[in-house]
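Encode chain A's predicted structure.
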Amino acid sequence: MTHFRGVARECGLPAGVGCTWTNQAGALRRIARARELGFDHIHLTPPYWIKLNEPARPVSVDNARSGNSQTGENSRPRLA
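Encoded structure for chain A:
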């Protein structure tokens, strides 16, 4: 993880990392470490055992299939 962040920083690109864990304390430790490493974005995911409610389930599946969990659009990063 530190190598990835360093390379992204050298290229002038923002970098994000995913975070999930089975309890709040573990997730908070991982978030704190990602901040220490200087990640620009931390993507939080609920633990595997939390069930999605019915209205959220189709949206989550559609977004996962499209490759973009934020917008549901299949997009690529824009490089300046």
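The radius of gyration is 15 Å.
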